[in-house]
Amino acid sequence: MEKTLLDSVTEKTRALIAAPSCCSQLKAMAEDWLNAAGTAQEAEATRRYVAEMEADIMPAEGLLAFAKSEMGAKVFGPENAPNVAAHAQALVDAGAPYCDCAACTICAAILEKKEQLLG
Predict the structure, then answer these.
(1) What pTM, to 2 d.p., does this model score?
(2) If you average pLDDT over residues 98-116, what whole number do you get?
């Protein structure tokens, strides 16, 4: 992998691991990728990392539906879920493809480089 790309994705991956909104499965995959970067296992780790990001990134419409659900009320709290739903509706109305939490924003930035990463 080109050094500039590797450095950029490494920086973003460290930020992703630190993001409070990043799920444990993605954090583990990100750590695995960091450990494999620059080794013979890099290509396979990159493939798995990209697949996990694609599975975990939350579409704005998905966030909206989740925030309006019973489970959303449990996760966000019954008093905060309507605020999250309103924010998600604003994202959908603006044409945003994904949730704008830290984890989703970082995933989107890394996934913009998907073709380069998978080479």
Answers:
(1) 0.91
(2) 97
